[in-house]
Amino acid sequence: MSDLVVEILILFFEVLCSKIFCEIFGKVRNKGWINIVQLFVLEISVFIMARTFSNIMILKQIVVASIYAGVMLWHVKISIGKSFALGLLYQAMLLSTDYLAYSINKEICSGNELIGKQYNLENVLVILLGRAILFLGVIIIRRKIGKKSIEVLCDTDWLKLLVFPIFTIVIITSMLSFFKNVETTDQIMLVFVGAFGMIGMNIVVFYLINDIAERETKLYEHRIFQLQVKSQAEMYRSISENFDKQKKKTHEYKNQIDCIEQLLNREQYSKLEEYVKAVHGRLDKELDAIDTNNIIVNAILNTKYQEADTNGIVVVLRVNDLSGLWMKDEDIVTILSNLLDNAIEACKKCDDGKRILKLKFVNEDGMIKIGVKNTFSNPIVYENGEIKSTKLVQAEEHGVGIKNIIEVIEKYGGSYIIKDDNCEFYFSIIIPA
To answer: How far is CA 317 from CA 25, 82, 320, 356, 418, in A?
Structure first.
């Protein structure tokens, strides 16, 4: 295998690692063929600059780091300053892993006298060992800092992913221990192919797992979207039903006024009194119990209040004028619908007389304050330190609902507290203006 081919392959792996590294810190600008162009430009640029400044170490590092920074800025959405800081950091990681690889080789192969092809093989294996360590470091950083794709893997799957780069490091280290016994050209070629094959398989395995994780992320996001659509559809259905009821009531009120007028004209005051009392009784049942001066909030609260009342749940409310809410309608639906659905579902499983739901929704002191407290009987399910469900059925949907609420809270820079104590579950939210 010629020195030029070896250099190009090593550089290609280095470039791919830089791509994975920069994607940790910013969103990819474009996907598709443009990524291939970016890799090609980066490969050629680094190759030329490394050859040009091969005798000036410090200048070479600065120039190469600048090239990495420029392509990072082109590839992901980050600031210029951050791109150059990341370029320097990546170059520092390259140097550090190379130094670590050479230190390992020095401990393993100290005292060995090498000639010709053996010496060249040793250098290549040391560089590949450094790149394998670099790759391991990059995916660990991605796990700790990154926010998407591979981060959806559970700890067990994550450990499985780490096994392959660690195994590669062990294999290449073993090759360094025994390569002095390699003598023929065929044996040297076999070692080259084995070492480069191990490095290449790391990239293949990483992107295979990353693709699987991205599909899982999309499925999760789709599930959240479906829950949002379901909540919004229920809310708009409630508004539509209330509007239809109001049209019918308007027509009915006209007939009632006509009837009252006829009774007055005939001076049948006793019947008029009975009729007015009957109409008044029906109005108490038909009119919405809650009015916050916000159509969306009214629709949700009145719908959920009626559902709670039907299931024998005592509802305690504290609301004020919410006409000045600055949140989007769909976000209000997401928070209220999920909170109240979960609370009602939990209360329904409690014994009669112990079904209590308390809701606070106020706009005061420039902040939106929402609090829901409800009784529950089933144990709360925790997973990885997070509440997954308070229900025995549809636990996955319930957990997604809670995560959906949290995403909306974080979107507005708010904070929340979740507690359970003495068979009461409490979810408190504060969203600043």
So the answer is: 44, 49, 10, 11, 19
The two tokens of residue 271 are 């019947």
Q: Of 359, 400, 360, give the one whose Cα is nearest residue 383.
A: 400
Q: In this structure, which amino acid lies at residue 37?
A: V
The 10 Å CB-count burial string (b at 16+, else e) for 338-348 is bbbbbbbbbbb
pLDDT digits (tens, 9 = 90+) for 269-320: 788 778 777 776 665 555 556 888 888 888 888 888 888 988 899 999 899 9
As a whole number of angstroms, the distance between CA 138 and CA 19 comes to: 10
pTM of the model: 0.56
Query: What does R_g of the chain's alpha carbons equal in angstroms?
Result: 34
Going by C-alpha positions, the residue among 369, 74, 333, 377 that lies closest to residue 228 is: 333
Distance between CA atoms of residues 21 and 131, nearest Å:
13
Angle among Cα 390, 393, 394 to the nearest 5 degrees reads: 90
The percent of residues in the chain predicted with pLDDT above 90, rounded, is: 9
Please give the Cα distance from 356 to 423 (Å, whole number). Answer: 11
Q: How far apart are CA 113 and CA 100, in angstroms?
A: 21
Cα separations in angstroms, 90 against 138, 253, 295:
9, 75, 53
Q: What is the dihedral of CA 419, 421, 424, 427, to 10 degrees?
A: -10
β-strand pairing of 367-375 with 424-432: antiparallel
| DSSP per residue, 37-65 | HHHHHHHHHHHHHHHHTTT-HHHHHHHHH
Bridge partners of 269, per DSSP, are none
In one-letter notation, the amino acid at residue 414 is G
In the sheet that holds 356-364, the strands lie side by side as: 314-319, 356-364, 367-375, 424-432, 415-421
